[in-house]
Specification:
two-stranded antiparallel ribbon, 3 helices, alpha+beta
Length: about 230
């Protein structure tokens, strides 16, 4: 092959060879760019103004932060008498007003011993956690033959191994428990018994009786009942 023919062949093939040889490099750079963009989108989750959805930076639930109101470890709960009164009312299954309601927070054991790590005998306990527990009586009632007027009352307890002293107090809308005996309305001593249950969460419900309802208080394997007549 002559020199002229070699030059023609070189000039013809070289551009094509360069295109073929640089194609993998171009593809690699493109894939690297796409992967980098994906990683950036995974790390940053922008939240639009006015959007109440939180920016989630991890798939783990504990990494999600509620900036409005943190979720309390001891959830607030309430119980009515008659039981499930709001559902009965909205289902048109009752024509009467409720008789009683208890509002309380529900601490849980978390591996602790009830009367070693959480409560102490002879020391006042708020019968819950956080806000003071409140009992609301919608009508006048009777507890252990003592007349109690309709209204809202703080409810707290002084536990002993075989009995609990339950106190009604007028210091409503309060946090924690700083007993002021001058605001005590009444005190009632009730028995406490051991059961075969082992409740993780403190529980308060009303159970119907012949003359009214028992306010049942249970935690771990203990159960106490405050009888209320309406």
């Amino acid at each position: 092959m002559g020199h002229g023919e070699s030059s023609i062949t070189y000039n013809f093939l070289m551009p094509r060879f360069m295109k073929i040889s640089t194609l993998p490099l171009i593809m690699c750079l493109f894939l690297f760019f796409v992967q980098a963009c994906n990683n950036k989108e995974e790390k940053i989750s922008p939240v639009k103004a006015g959007d109440t959805t939180e920016a989630i930076t991890s798939s783990k639930p504990e990494a999600t932060v509620n900036s409005y109101a943190p979720v309390d470890i001891s959830p607030m709960d309430m119980s009515y008498y008659p039981a499930n009164y709001p559902q009965l009312k909205m289902g048109n299954n009752t024509n009467t007003a409720p008789l009683a309601r208890i509002i309380y927070s529900r601490p849980h054991l978390q591996g602790r011993k009830l009367f070693q790590d959480v409560l102490k005998y002879g020391e006042p306990w708020r019968l819950g956690a956080n806000e003071a527990t409140e009992l609301e009586l919608y009508n006048d009632a009777s507890i252990q033959d003592r007349k109690i007027k309709a209204g809202r009352y703080v409810l707290y307890c002084i536990p002993q191994p075989d009995k609990w002293t339950i106190i009604l107090n007028s210091n409503i809308d309060s946090w924690g428990l700083k007993p002021d005996p001058s605001k005590d309305i009444a005190r009632f001593v009730i028995p406490v018994r051991q059961t075969t249950n082992h409740l993780e969460y403190f529980t308060m419900i009303f159970e119907k009786t012949n003359g009214g309802a028992d306010l049942l208080m249970a935690w771990d394997n203990l159960e106490a009942r405050l009888p209320i007549s309406f």
